[in-house]
Structure to design on (268 residues):
């Protein structure tokens, strides 16, 4: 599932291509929006909110999309062949005279009044990459339920918006604890360091799609544990383990090192 940094960059690119420009093509390929025509309207802006994308359009309208596990928005210049999947996977087309944005495999696509945006994003906690970022509030929400496993607390978008499985696993490794350790068992100061590190890492990655949490620029060393099943831990050499399936619709796969990450392992 794309995480907050990927959504920020996607919004940034869409905003640069569409904002301030007149829509010359509009095609929303979901049944409830099949008769909607946005041509002739100007795109005002494209704003990320956690893992949500808000495309605001003249007339007080917002096209809300969420990529979930494998959705994407692609940009193409006029006359360029669309590449992103077969045509039957296209859910949205927004075109200007210069560029066309094509949304593939979008599981969430809604058109609502801009004033009603809180109905789809109002539940979110402080946005790690948003203008409303509030470090103290994010920490307060993460530690509010001491019995909750750390991984669940980090993934809960009501606590802080933008973290997905990659950052969940990387943050737990950096803190030397498993994702299943209850938040209340973290040592003093660790929740604050986790939240600060999450903010720093998303900020560092928001301008690139090839996310990395490790220092340096080696292409073979980008992440500490995520996606490294059975490979040696960079810290202690123990083989990395994995829990959960990649095709799980709940998207709760976890990678961790049983050698140097303290805390419980998954029970199922």
């Amino acid at each position: 599932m794309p995480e907050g940094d990927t959504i920020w960059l996607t919004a940034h690119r869409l905003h640069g291509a569409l904002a301030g420009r007149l829509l010359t093509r509009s095609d929303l390929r979901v049944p409830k929006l099949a008769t909607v025509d946005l041509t002739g309207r100007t795109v005002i802006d494209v704003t990320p909110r956690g893992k949500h994308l808000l495309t605001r359009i003249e007339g007080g309208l917002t096209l809300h999309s969420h990529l979930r596990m494998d959705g994407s928005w692609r940009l193409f210049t006029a006359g360029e062949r669309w590449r992103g999947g077969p045509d039957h996977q296209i859910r949205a087309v927004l075109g200007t005279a210069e560029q066309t944005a094509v949304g593939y495999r979008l599981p969430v696509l809604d058109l609502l009044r801009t004033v009603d945006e809180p109905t789809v994003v109002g539940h979110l906690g402080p946005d790690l990459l948003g203008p409303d970022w509030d470090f103290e509030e994010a920490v307060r929400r993460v530690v509010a339920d001491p019995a909750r496993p750390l991984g669940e607390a980090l993934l809960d978008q009501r606590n802080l918006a933008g973290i997905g499985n990659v950052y969940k696993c990387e943050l737990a490794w950096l803190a030397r604890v498993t994702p299943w350790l209850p938040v209340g068992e973290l040592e003093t100061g660790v929740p604050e360091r986790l939240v600060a590190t999450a903010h720093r890492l998303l900020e560092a990655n928001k301008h690139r799609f090839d996310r990395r949490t490790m220092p340096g620029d080696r292409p073979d060393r980008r992440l500490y544990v995520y996606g490294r099943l059975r490979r040696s831990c960079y810290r202690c050499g123990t083989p990395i383990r994995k829990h959960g399936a990649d095709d799980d619709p709940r998207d709760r796969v976890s990678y961790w090192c049983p050698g140097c990450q303290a805390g419980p392992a998954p029970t199922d």
